[in-house]
Amino acid sequence: MTARITIKGLNKSFATPVLKQLALQVAPGSIHGLVGENGAGKSTLINIICGLLAADSASLTLDGRAYHPTSRTDSLAEGLALASQELSLIETLSIEENILLSSFPQNAVSIDRRAVRQQAKVLMEIVGLRNIPPQTQLAHLSLAEKQLVELAKALSMPADRIKLLILDEPTSALTSSQADQVHKIIKQRAKSGLSVIYVSHRLDDVLCVCDTVSVLRDGVIQLTAASNSLTSNDLIREMSGEELLQHSGDEPRETGDLRLGIEQLSSADFPEPISLQCHAREIIGIAGLAGAGRSELLHAIYGLAADRQGRVVLNRSGANVLIDSANTAAKNGMALIAEDRKSQGIFSGKSISFNTTVAGLGKLSGNLGAIIPKREQRVSEELISRLKVKCEGTLQSIDRLSGGNQQKVLIARWLQSESDVWLLDEPTRGVDAGSKFAIHEQLRKLRDQGATMIIVSSELEELTALCDRILVLSNKKAVAIFKRGQWSKEKLLAAAFSEHKGERALAG
Ligand SMILES: Nc1ncnc2c1ncn2[C@@H]1O[C@H](COP(=O)(O)OP(=O)(O)OP(=O)(O)O)[C@@H](O)[C@H]1O
Ligand SMILES: [Mg+2]
């Protein structure tokens, strides 16, 4: 059978070679997983296939014919649908405009608004965005919702015209039930002959949804095999070239004194009051489905929410400070690591070094453009190496890093700030398995030194690996709290669904 796409002899260098004589083939109707560490070159390969980036040399065919796109217009005309890792959406446009941007239905002289809304609604229904009006401005959506809009946009091409659907980490911000919905769509489409390239760091998902998986390391495909012949440990070994270190399972541990007292806290976005006592040397996880209010709760704790009621009291060595605004929180050494690195974390156009040390700049004299002192530079370099950030040096611009490596720089920034109360929203989104392990080790170390952490994660495995207690939210209510040793995946999921009864069917 003629392959849908074949890639041969593909070379691409930036300052150093990224892809070397790479060869890959995807069959019609196949869901082909592509995995590799952060910075391995997955997005670069995808950008080349879609004509967004030029290869230094390559020979590509699509359904047996030579295919050499030089722009996204070329690849769209050939039926390549793409959902990008760093979302290709425009914040100031509405959902419907974003979805149909590249394929506005035209009547004789102008855009047919009614047709746009109708088509957008159908696509939104498919990806699971039922309850949001299509005319909502994109900027009002959560990261997970934006990710679903990106998918709807990719699917906006007429189904019979899409030959190859390319998904670059389409589920990194999604909860497991939202991801399941995405997987259902992909499987359905593949049955009717569509080919899919699926990139993800959620290796269990890759093995479950893909029929074939390829591993990219050192610029070449190291392995291509049927997914039912592989385990996630096989993939990690091929991705990193080494065995995965295993963290020995934690036993319940003693925590320290009360550090953060949350008393009857509520806000416009988290209306049901919640009380929680967080201790020194403690990591508390927050679990829940999409829309359960996890990020909203973090924002309320940090003083960032509208109509905030109740109290948050920070206690250090017996001295109490009332946290009544984000300003007081920041001044008193509380760190909030936001979920959406693109809009809330990265200083675009600045170096890795600047991006890692900026949290500590308050301690430096001079303006923000001041030269970063040698000590800061050294700390930054050490963290970059400990977290395995793949870069050419700390003076490289952060924009040049792969998505996962940008995330690691943000973590490095906070790791070297002097915070001892941390609110982390999806800290390892898009980070590969080996680096995730390194980040977890750093977080445990900070905890052992006395820090208090509250972590939101869509991956239950991440919470059960790290936390001393897990608070479960359901439909903007705190419904259960489990100590280490008391939880199971079933108990956590049952609690997460408890207040979302109508949506149970959706999760399948
Ligand atoms: N415009 C650029 N200029 C210089 N180097 C770049 C540029 N774009 C990417 N790179 C480098 O190419 C390498 C591959 O990056 P790419 O984004 O393809 O990785 P990835 O496999 O998608 O990683 P992730 O899992 O983090 O998304 C990285 O080392 C990155 O720093
Ligand atoms: Mg990438």
SSE inventory with pairings:
Layout: E1 5-13, E2 17-26, E3 31-35, H1 42-49, E4 57-62, E5 65-66, H2 72-77, E6 80-83, H3 95-100, H4 113-127, H5 143-154, E7 164-168, H6 176-191, E8 195-199, H7 203-209, E9 212-217, E10 220-226, H8 232-240, E11 258-266, E12 274-279, E13 282-287, H9 294-302, E14 309-316, E15 319-322, H10 326-331, E16 334-337, H11 341-344, H12 352-357, H13 374-386, H14 403-415, E17 421-425, H15 433-448, E18 452-456, H16 460-466, E19 469-474, E20 477-483, H17 489-497, H18 504-507
Parallel strand pairs: 3-8, 3-9, 6-7, 7-8, 13-18, 13-19, 16-17, 17-18
Antiparallel strand pairs: 1-2, 1-4, 4-5, 9-10, 11-12, 11-14, 14-15, 19-20
Helix pairs in contact: 4-5
Bound molecules: adenosine-5'-triphosphate and magnesium ion.
Adenosine-5'-triphosphate (ATP) binds next to helix 1 and helix 14.
Question: Main attributes?
Answer:
binds magnesium ion, 508 residues, 33% helix, six-stranded mixed beta sheet, 18 helices, Rossmann fold, binds adenosine-5'-triphosphate, globular, 20 strands
